[in-house]
Amino acid sequence: MSASLPPKGMAGMPQPQQQQSHLPPGGGVQGQPPQGALREISPVFLCRIGQETVQDIVTRTMEIFQITRATQLPNGVTQSQAMYQDRFGKLQEHLRQLALLFRKLRLLYERCMEMTFDLHEGPAELVPYGTEESWSVPVEPCSPAVLQERLEVLEKVRQKNQEMKTLMDQMRNLLWDVNAMLSLRK
After folding, report:
1. Which residue of 8, 84, 114, 146 is 20 to 30 Å from 45, comparing CA positions?
2. Model pTM score
3. CB under 8 Å to 166, separation ≥6 — which residues?
4. C-alpha distances in angstroms, 112 versus 44, 50, 53, 122, 123?
5. Could you list the mean pLDDT of each consecutive 10-residue stretch along the chain, which spans 186 residues?
């Protein structure tokens, strides 16, 4: 996407270092990657390339929106056909580049998933929603008096919960009646 700029320096001066930088490390013929180069690419490097690709996608998308925003809808005023063709061509090129970037991102994602397949864990064990009995705390063996007191407390809690539920139902019904009366009044 981005074009490389020539290095800063005096114009017309030969720069031998630039020519040598294209050779792979350890010498070799240009255009032939060193043996195992594809295997040495780490998932971190792929993720960095993916991040740059996402940034390119966002930039292209913003450019597409700028082009469409600058385009005037036909409102009876004749504009130059060349201008519309130019914008249409730019829009088509941006959309083509965007499709290529999405393909590149998909390939990077799939390659990264292949390389890190052994690192993926299944979903953590989920605790299903259960009844009150499934949440009970294991009780150590104790005296019968303590067990009896525990059962009495549990029964009182159940009774209080039932009373609260009855009160909430009564309040809900009362609110329904009040709202119905107010709506009839208006």
Report:
1. 8
2. 0.43
3. none
4. 9, 10, 14, 17, 19
5. 41 38 39 50 89 95 89 69 84 93 93 81 56 59 85 92 93 90 84
